[in-house]
Design brief:
Order of helices and strands: HHHHHEEEEEEE
Helix content: 40-55%
Oligomer: single chain
Length: 227
């Protein structure tokens, strides 16, 4: 191969190497275009979402390959090695983009963990009104959030009374947000009320350390007043 031909091939390979050097920026752009914001990234990392780590690692490897290719001398053997290194870089680059799409989809989907907020108890025993808000993001369209409210004794053991029991479905964005308000009649021996929200397929144990653990709230009832 003549020196002029070698120079042309080397220049083209260098151009490819420079493109791969922006792999991390390109992958980040794909994730952003798919709605993977910084908040969702932190949630995904907190949940140990493997696609985020894999996409970042492959992008870094693509950049390393591009830097190595740029440092190889444009000799006949050097061009061969540069070609091999750039092929590896392109493979890492394409894998990174593919995994980034999977990671964006997985992270945007969340895991459907519910929360219970704005708990209110109004009235006088035994007739009270219980109100609370249930919210969950990233709930699959086929899934539900089971919500219940029970009376419990001092040892947190439930009575055979369900103040409230329901199954909430997400909207078209995978969000469940429901304000629940229900009149209840409390037994005299009841100590408190336990409210729970359980994701589909998730653990029902309030002290569970699993990824899809439930949300649980226990509130102490006011003392009985004579009227």
């Amino acid at each position: 191969m003549s020196e002029e031909a070698q120079a042309r091939v080397g220049k083209r390979l260098d151009d490819v190497a420079k493109i791969l050097a922006g792999a991390l920026v390109a992958v980040a752009g794909i994730m952003t275009a798919l709605g993977l914001t910084s908040d969702i990234v932190f949630v995904a990392l907190n949940n140990e979402s493997w696609p985020i780590y894999a996409a970042s690692l492959c992008a870094v490897l693509a950049i390393v390959c591009s830097i190595v290719a740029l440092l190889i001398r444009p000799t006949p053997r050097g061009i061969l090695w540069e070609t091999v290194v750039l092929i590896l870089g392109v493979i890492f680059y394409m894998v990174s983009l593919s995994v980034a799409v999977v990671g964006a989809s997985k992270a945007a989907g969340g895991n459907g963990r519910p929360t219970i907020t704005d708990v209110e108890l109004k009235g006088h025993r035994p007739d009270l009104t219980l109100s609370f808000t249930v919210r969950a993001d990233g709930v699959d369209t086929w899934a539900t959030i089971e919500v219940y409210a029970d009376a419990v004794d001092l040892d947190k053991d439930p009575f055979d009374i369900d103040f409230y029991s329901g199954y909430l479905r997400p909207d078209d964005k995978g969000v469940v947000e429901q304000r629940v308000s229900s009149p209840i009649t409390v037994p005299e021996e009841a100590w408190g009320i336990e409210i729970g929200a359980v994701a589909a397929g998730g653990s029902q144990d309030c002290e569970s350390l699993t990824e899809r653990g439930p949300a649980c709230v226990t509130i102490k009832l006011p003392p009985t007043t004579r009227r």
